[in-house]
Amino acid sequence: MFAFLMVVQVLVCLLLIAVILMQSSKGGGLAGTFGGGNVGMVFGVRRTADFLIRATQILAGTFIVLSFLMNVFFLPKTTVERSAIEQGGTPTQQQQQGLPPQSIPSETPPPAPQQ
């Protein structure tokens, strides 16, 4: 199921990229470069823009829903290690389990170098 949803997710991504690039911007965008200018002749300029905007909205919504579903239901759950306080243990129990004791640095100054 995860593999199927991943394939659908990739297809939605590719379609979303294509639909966004077909939309004309103030500078003409890539719509004119790849023949997108002729699309307006089929539907009419306004209907083409409406179609591309609606397709972008649907594909973006599908992308978000698929991402959420795959993340919540299909990714493996990770376990979080609890600290000693949350487990109810004491620091002495931690030291007995093999953790090295924390040492406090000495306050004596280092020896002076010999000349």
Give structural notes.
The chain is mainly alpha-helical. The chain has a domain at 47-76. It is 57% helix and 0% strand. It is built from five helices and no strands. Helix 1 (2-22) runs antiparallel to helix 3 (45-74). The mean pLDDT is 74.
Strand content: under 5%
The outline comes out as: elongated
Report helical residue fraction. Answer: 55-70%
- Report Rg: 31 Å
> What is the count of helical runs?
5
How many β-strand runs? Answer: 0
Uncertain stretches: none
Structural class: mainly alpha
How many angstroms separate the termini?
76 Å
H/E order of the elements? Answer: HHHHH
Protein traits:
single chain; 115 residues; mainly alpha; 5 helices; 57% helix; elongated
Describe this structure in a few short sentences:
By secondary structure, this protein is mostly helical.
Question: What's the layout of helices and strands?
Answer:
Layout (H helix, E strand, L loop, with lengths): L1 H21 L16 H5 L1 H30 L9 H4 L3 H6 L19
Helix pairs in contact: 1-3
